[in-house]
């Protein structure tokens, strides 16, 4: 195992070790001096070292005490600020803005972390992550495709996203059983995020994709009646995967301007 550290399954640890892939990721991030840069899960420092060299100061969020000890031993706190703990519970808002967030996210908690970070979108300049390719495919999926779902709608509402390139299992030690991918996220301007009730948007989207084979008439019966579908110009016989992000936002706007027991 690299540098004597045994990867821990409970932390979803797979350490990046391919020098060419590391250079490619750092080039995609393009760190500059003065960037307010935070790395989630620095691990053994494959990305940490080049990021620190280019940006002059780096924040890292790490949960593994052994890895934290290594980081403290190797780096001057004037250049590397270590935040000990779970990234899912970390308040990224305390770091200031505009934040640039990067990292090889633990695949076992990647979706919760993405939703957690979406809450800080107004303080973020951009985010570049390595994730399981299947998750990245879902993030950037188009409507009416198998990969399109709740993750697609909720993240596409808040971010412009692009899948940059794939990373093979052999680039890691230990090698995971899946292919990874690098994804880039940039928050949309506030003027484009016009949903009147984002919590309601989340509930509706979750319901629409909760039973993918059912029609919207069935999955959204708590909120939408026949006349609502008519007013929205949406076919109640359609399925959730056929609607774009704007369609779901229109639903929320419609519900917010009408009184429905299900919308309360």
TrEMBL record:
GO molecular function: 16S rRNA (adenine(1518)-N(6)/adenine(1519)-N(6))-dimethyltransferase activity; RNA binding
Residue numbers binding S-adenosyl-L-methionine: 14, 16, 41, 62, 86, 104
Domain (Ribosomal RNA adenine methylase transferase N-terminal): residue spans on this chain: 21-189
Gene3D superfamilies named among the record's database cross-references: Ribosomal RNA adenine dimethylase-like, domain 2, Vaccinia Virus protein VP39
Keywords: Cytoplasm, Methyltransferase, RNA-binding, rRNA processing, S-adenosyl-L-methionine, Transferase
Catalytic reactions of this protein: adenosine(1518)/adenosine(1519) in 16S rRNA + 4 S-adenosyl-L-methionine = N(6)-dimethyladenosine(1518)/N(6)-dimethyladenosine(1519) in 16S rRNA + 4 S-adenosyl-L-homocysteine + 4 H(+)
The enzyme's E.C. designation: 2.1.1.182
Any one of the GO CC terms: cytosol
Principal location listed in the UniProt entry: cytoplasm
UniProt-listed SMART domains: rADc
A Pfam family hit: RrnaAD
Subcellular location: Cytoplasm
Family indicated by similarity: Belongs to the class I-like SAM-binding methyltransferase superfamily. rRNA adenine N(6)-methyltransferase family. RsmA subfamily.
Known function: Specifically dimethylates two adjacent adenosines (A1518 and A1519) in the loop of a conserved hairpin near the 3'-end of 16S rRNA in the 30S particle. May play a critical role in biogenesis of 30S subunits.
PANTHER family found in the cross-reference section: DIMETHYLADENOSINE TRANSFERASE, DIMETHYLADENOSINE TRANSFERASE-RELATED
Name of this chain's protein: Ribosomal RNA small subunit methyltransferase A
Organism: Candidatus Dactylopiibacterium carminicum
Lineage, highest ranks first: Bacteria, Pseudomonadati, Pseudomonadota, Betaproteobacteria, Rhodocyclales
Gene: rsmA
């Amino acid at each position: 195992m690299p540098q004597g550290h045994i990867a821990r399954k409970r932390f979803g640890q797979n350490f990046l070790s391919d020098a060419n892939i590391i250079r490619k990721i750092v080039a995609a991030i393009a760190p500059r001096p003065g960037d307010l840069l935070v790395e989630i899960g620095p691990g053994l420092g494959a990305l940490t070292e080049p990021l620190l060299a280019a940006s002059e100061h780096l924040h890292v969020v790490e949960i593994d005490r052994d890895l934290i000890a290594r980081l403290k031993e190797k780096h001057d706190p004037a250049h590397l600020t270590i935040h000990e703990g779970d990234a899912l519970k970390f308040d990224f808002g305390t770091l200031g803005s505009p934040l640039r967030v990067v990292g090889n996210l633990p695949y076992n908690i990647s979706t919760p972390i993405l939703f957690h970070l979406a809450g800080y979108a107004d303080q973020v300049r951009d985010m570049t992550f390595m994730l399981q390719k299947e998750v990245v495919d879902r993030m950037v999926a188009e409507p009416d495709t198998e990969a399109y779902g709740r993750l697609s709608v909720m993240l596409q509402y808040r971010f412009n996203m692009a899948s940059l390139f794939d990373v093979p299992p052999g680039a890691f030690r230990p090698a995971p059983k899946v292919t990874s991918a690098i994804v880039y996220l940039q928050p949309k301007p506030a003027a484009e995020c016009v949903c009147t009730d984002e919590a309601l948007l989340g509930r509706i989207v979750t319901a629409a994709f909760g039973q993918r084979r059912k029609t919207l008439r069935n999955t959204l019966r708590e909120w939408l009646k026949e006349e609502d579908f008519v007013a929205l110009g949406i076919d109640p016989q359609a399925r959730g995967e056929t609607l774009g992000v704007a369609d779901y936002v229109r639903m929320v706007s419609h519900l917010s301007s009408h009184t429905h027991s299900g919308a309360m």
